[in-house]
Design brief:
This protein is mainly α. Helix content is 20%, strand content 0%. The chain has helices at 3-27, 68-71, 131-134, 201-207, 218-224. It is elongated. The termini are far apart.
Length: 233
């Protein structure tokens, strides 16, 4: 093979490689579809942003990738200062949707504006306990401290219903109201059987002499008579 023919083959080979590479390099900035997948993917509205809007005087590999590096001034007053991607996507600010699964917003909480619960600019310190927002909703003489979920659903306070049968069946004889047994409205852990069943301690001690571990107390009554009947268990 002659020298000229060999040189022609080499030149043709180099052109076959160089032209596609030059094409890709020339379009890497003007066409965001050509991406360096290991750095920052251009998605949503970023696909149409000219390179110069993000890559100004700094080298490409030194351009920050956090949203606030470019969009800090786009935050409205009193905006949450957390990472933008917690609520927003690259498809537009208007598509904001925070993942509130850590405290599901359903029932009476559905559709609430953020600032009905959160102070502007502070989205992390709010206590999840109902009383942190609803303490003033308790009527006068309401039982506390107590977990609101024991009686109330999230849909409406008025739907409150406490399943007392889990602890002790009521109505029980003449006891139908809470304060018939719970003499202290602020302490539902305490209750009195002896208040209604006026058994003298002397007679009860004598009657239960052979029933260990009997003691003269209301909690002992319920331990042996969980359904309020004489038969006990």
């Amino acid at each position: 093979m002659g020298r000229m023919k060999r040189n022609r083959i080499v030149i043709q080979t180099l052109l076959c490689v160089a032209i596609p590479v030059a094409f890709l390099l020339g379009h890497a900035c003007s066409n965001p579809q050509v991406e360096q997948a290991t750095h920052y993917l251009m998605r949503g509205l970023h696909r149409d942003v000219p390179c110069s809007e993000c890559h100004q005087d700094s080298p490409l590999n030194e351009t920050p990738t956090v949203c606030a590096a470019c969009h800090q001034d786009d935050r409205p007053a009193a905006h949450n200062d957390g990472p933008c991607e917690n609520c927003h996507t690259e498809f537009g600010w208007g598509d904001a949707a925070v993942d509130h699964s850590f405290f599901p917003l359903h029932g009476g909480h559905e559709g609430l504006d953020c600032f009905e619960c959160h102070e502007p600019g502070d989205y992390t310190t709010l206590d999840r306990a109902c009383g942190s927002c609803h303490e003033n909703d308790r009527p006068t003489g309401h039982y506390e401290p107590i977990d609101c979920f024991l009686c109330h659903p999230l849909s409406d306070w008025a739907d409150g219903l406490f399943d007392h049968a889990f602890y002790f069946p009521i109505p029980h004889r003449d006891a139908v109201e809470c304060d018939d047994c719970h003499l202290d409205p602020n302490n539902l852990d305490e209750y009195s059987c002896i208040h209604c069943h006026e058994h003298s301690e002397f007679l009860m001690d004598k009657h239960h002499r052979e029933v260990p571990p009997y003691v003269y107390s209301s909690t002992a009554c319920v331990t042996c008579h969980p359904d309020g009947l004489n038969g006990g268990q």
